[in-house]
Every structure is written in C-alpha cells, then in structure tokens.
Automatic annotation (TrEMBL):
One of its GO terms (molecular function) is GTPase activity. The keyword Nucleotide-binding applies. This is Uncharacterized protein. GO terms for cellular component: late endosome; lysosome; phagocytic vesicle. InterPro entries: P-loop_NTPase, Small_GTP-bd, Small_GTPase.
Length: 195
C-alpha cells in the first residue's frame, strides 16, 4: 500500500475498520505503527485514525476505530462503534494466553453487536518480537479456522513486523467482501503468507 497524492482521491473508497482485543495487547500501538511508523500509549474509550492507501489501483480511505479493551463494559456504546464497520482486526498478545482465549469472545461480540456474521475479521498475534510465546502457530490456525476469521498474522507493533502486509491483506478482503473490488483480480497476500 502506498500513500497517495490528493489529486488521485476523486474516486476513493471508504472502509471503517474496528480494532479490538483485550487491554494492553497493543491495539493502539498497532494503529499508530500503521499510521505513523511509531508506537504510543493506551487508549481510554475509543480513538480514531485515518490513512489514505492505494490498493490495486484504487484509492482507499481507511477509518480506523481503536476501541478500548474492556469487553464486559459499555456494550450498548460498543454497538454504536461497530455500526457500519467494513472490517475488523482482533489483536491478542502472543505472550499472554488469556488474551488469545479472549480473542474468540471479541470475535463473537462483533458478530452479535454488529448483526453481521460475514464481517471480514483478521486475527493478529502481536508482540512476536518477544521471546516467550505462549501460543503456537497450530493453535492460532485452528482457532482461526473454527471461528470464521479471514486469516491470521504474526505482528510486532514495536518493530513494525508485518504491519503493512496484514493491513494490505485486510483491505483487499474487505473491498471484495463489500463488492468494491473484483474478486477475479485476486488477493496479493494469502492468509498463509502473513504468518
């Protein structure tokens, strides 16, 4: 994906992407790393970010909603945050198994509150730059397949590992799912290649 010149934005597509997962898994750092190439503090409530990208010759304006990681709180408000979402990223901390378990709850929460079971959701294992992984690739693959994720990836918001590649994959899948990209063009990144 490339940043684009404002003169190319005449026929841009818009995608709302919600970023969810437990507190302290690195959602805000993921968004900031994608937008600005650096990481930052935690989010209280919800935060918004925008980025214009180019995807297979189409200009896409991404609206990223970084939603706090307290699943039990604020469900009525969360429903408003999920409204009109085009895609979803569920992030967990690969060093904290409980956040991996929670990722499935987050996925189900999106399906329930958005009333859209076909919303493209990508599962991301963050903090792969750290040594002590408590979740195996096989476990991630199995849960990904069992819970209707479009794919999964291993990322590090800290050192930017696979940040752009996973977002490219998600944007292409979301555009196809929303009928804004010809599926015959094909996905540049397959789920297996973003691991």
């Amino acid at each position: 994906m490339n940043l684009v010149d404002a003169t190319e934005r005449v026929d841009e597509k818009h995608l709302k992407v919600i970023i969810i997962g437990d507190s302290l898994v690195g959602k805000s750092s993921f968004v900031e790393s994608f937008i600005n190439g650096k990481i930052r503090r935690t989010t209280t409530g919800v935060d918004f970010a925008f980025k214009i990208v180019k995807c297979q010759e189409q200009v896409v304006k991404l609206q990223l909603w970084d939603i706090n990681g307290q699943l039990e709180r604020c469900s009525p408000i969360r429903k408003l945050y999920y409204k009109d979402a085009s895609a979803c990223v569920v992030i967990f901390d690969v060093t904290q198994y409980k956040t991996f378990d929670s990722a499935i709850k987050w996925r189900k929460n999106v399906e329930t509150l958005s009333n859209v079971s076909s919303l493209p959701c990508l599962l991301l294992a963050n903090k792969v730059d750290l040594q002590s992984h408590s979740v195996t690739d096989e476990e991630i693959e199995e849960r990904c397949n069992q819970n209707n994720f479009i794919g999964w990836g291993k990322i590090s918001a800290q050192d930017r590992t696979n940040i752009d590649e996973t977002m490219q994959f998600l944007v292409e899948k979301a555009l196809i799912s929303n009928g804004r990209l010809d599926s015959d063009v094909g996905i540049l990144l397959q789920a297996e290649s973003i691991k």
